[in-house]
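Write out this protein's structure.
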Amino acid sequence: STQSVLLKNAVIGVDVGSGSARAGVFSSEDGSLLGPVAKSPIQSWEYGDGFAEQSSEDIWQSVCTVVKEAVMSAGSPEIRGLGIDATCSLVAVGKEYFDKRSVSLENNSDDRDVVLWMDHRASVEAAHINRVGQADVLSTVGGAVSLEMEMPKLLWLRKHKGDEWFDSCKFFDLTDYLTWRASGSEKRSLCTLVCKWCFEASKSQMRWRGDFLKAIGIFDNDMENNAQRAFGSEFGAPGSLAAGLSSTAAAEFDLKPGIPVAIGAIDAHAGGIGCVGADAGDGLNYIDRLALVAGTSACHMVTSAEPCFTPGVWGPYYNAMVPGTYLNEAGQSSAGQLLDALAKRGVLCKENVSTETSFARAERLRSRLTQLAVSKGLADPALLTANIHVDPDFRGNRSPWADPQRRGSLIGLGLPLGDDSEEDHTAVIWLAACQALAYQTRGIIENLRVAKHNDSWIRQIVVSGGLANDPLYLSAHADVTGLEVTRARDGEAVLLGAAVLAASAAQIYPDVPAAMRAMTHLLSAQESVFPDPRLKTYHDAKFTIFNELQSKVGIWRKSMNDALQI
């Protein structure tokens, strides 16, 4: 039967996010999900000024739990491959297997051995790297490293944990750590290394840059060898084979040893793999599409055959997402997180904040905006924000300013009178913030096109993540960018991306692009969101104001910093 064929060609995708691990069993035939997605929480510790930590053992146990649950609920599938994606968090490990190392200042328990991706402890170290690092290395991260990348965090650990501690450790991106736990292979993913570790990769060579490591002061001597010892000496593209499932991990997963384990990817990049390469019958492929993975934060990813250096945009990263291509990556530190925080401001939201889901809250606000537009005789709710302008960088800026110290702003606020008026006010501010995220996306696309000298590059936006379920977010992006906006058909692009890597590593397909074409799908054209031409002039005007506001923020902050020097 068809179902038995699907079960005989099953692959597992594992996705480790900020707050939970998830696993799903997929058919490698068509990418269909064969059972419910299993989910298990992950503990975090946040303290001080931007410190955020986790436990690798807690994460691993959650992974074991969800893999077993997903396989059990899928109906006795024959598992042919396993792929893992995770956040770009940093794991410290002793030289011996399972030998943990605490990364915490608050608690020296070795359980807290993961610096979470969103940790902002390394601002001084990031500034140091941007001051002394070679320009050609920094050009691959838009001109400046982010304090969320690994090199600033590694420098912080050397400085605050000491040389003896640092030199007794080896370090992994979380994806690579979990692949190591599953397979015993220490091969690092080029996705993690080139995107987060300042590792040099191109069509001609792949290496740790000794001159860069010396300039930033990460080691005293023998730069390349020390980097290979501490950060990895074997590398592979996502979807290539790490090794077979180890007997230890197989026992923990209740699976057979030897199942091919893929070299993995960062979670956002797995989301791109899970949607941009679909054969939608429209003649477009992964070169033409921008993947927008929009959840708590947002990540914008686009691939090209040749490198494209763009100020304020990370990359070009070779072999980071689709093997054989260059990836450019931009992002927003706060997207869904910002919208949800603003949505909770109103009176009704305050009353229901403990019981109402983010989705229900957004749905109620959208309904309120529709009613408000009708009552004011406006052709579209988008027009409600004519005099409300939002800078969305409440948690700093990734693109194009690469400035974690930036903060957001709201312009055009009034004094609401009465509960109803306050609720309307909240809804309009929420809408303006949603539009602001779209203006930032438009700016990223325009910068990429200018750098590429190609005004027609990027012809479609494919959205995945939690915000893909918000019709207002989708329509704002279509109207503001002038592009068709679509979604992954099955709503699990990130997990599916990990499963695609598994199918490639198992050689069910010859490479990742072939697996993407077979296993990933987009909604039909009839379900896409297209720009409303009536709103073009309106959004062009607001986009101009948005850019003026963004450019002024840095000037204002410098003026006040100068004024503080008393």
